[in-house]
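Um, can you check?
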Amino acid sequence: MQAKRRKERVRRLGVDLVGAAFLTLMLIAACAPPVAQPAPVSEEAVTLRYWQYMTEHETQERAVIARFEEKYPNIKVNLEIIPDDTYFQKLNAEYVAGSPPDIFNGGAPDSGWPYWDKLLDLKPFIEANINKDDYFYGFVDAQNLAGKYVGLPRNWVDLVMFYNKDLFDEAGIEYPNEHWTWEEDLLNAAKALTKDTDGDGNPDQWGFWTGPDVLNMDGYVYASGGAVLSEDKSRCLLDSPESIEAIQFLVDLVHKHKVAPGPTTGLYVTREQADPFQSGKLAMRVNGTWMLGQYAELAAGTVGFDWGIAPIPLSSKTGKRVVYGGADLLLINKATEHPDEAWKFIEFATSAEAGADWYNVNPGHMPALKSIRDSEEWLADKDPEKVAVIESQVESIYNGDARPAWFEFLDAKNNELDPAFLGEESVEAAAAAACAAIQPILDANPVPE
């Protein structure tokens, strides 16, 4: 923790000097503009609405609220759990109706930018109350979007390679590791793990899964020297030669190498359908650490298989890995009538005082606060190997091209690139169509300066 600067003691050189200095300071203070500071929390009874989409955390969230209300008996927090598949649709409707919640959870891509002009700037609260060095990896400053601190980090996530240990063991293949590359190690393993187990001439066990979404494609495009958007997020670059080459490699996994399921297999799924990894017929896939809680039940499930995680592979072309990820936040609506009380709640909920049990629900929701991450309460039941894998990639995290109109931009990208992955269109044509659909969205929703 960075030490606070201490004021130097001033030696008394005489009454006249002290008096002159005092008068000078008084004049400066009188002329100086006032510094905005959060007001002290009043004792007036206040009720806050709080929306949360992490349904698995409901019990622990209510326990955090109970502790908070015990400490601040005049502040009541009404928790509303909204499933994530309808969360943002309902949040948008609340804003349109003029009745959004005082506090809600989200991330920089899905909340910080889309609601940027509707969020309270937390800068004065953070400067007065938060030591940024108490948090991992600069996650506090990462929420400074165009000069506005949009949220306070609670936990963070990234992507990992999930793999079916049973299928690897049966094939006699070593598990993925941090040295793996996409173009060699992953491809060779995927070939060996793709099998026709029932002898009908068609594979029914697959080595890998891929698609055009931010989880499965975008990081590889960047790692390979291509780009989805320009650095200032104003131009689509999917149609550049480097980007097309990277997308082509992923499409070839489906149609040339035939190690990833295509549209006729029943395992090529859209983003709204079931996760194919849980079928037990998929050896590897990239997914978020938020899936660790759900996947924990796989070994005991009806399919029943053991699994592990590994870092996202490197690009053999550049030697880089790029991983989508970042912090989940608590955010405050700018229109709230109780900004100071709302700050008190998010400050408490993200602190060690709230307890580590909230994070224990899902081991893939890594604490952003160092004191929670290093606490015995959090470490007690964690798999150190999985923790090490997740944390080893943090320097490779990028935020998924977070910007205004993020959802619209991603939907346009996915919809226009899907035909290439389905084998209905060339990568060049699909990439051109994607940029044609994306660019008007970028132009109509510029990044604030």
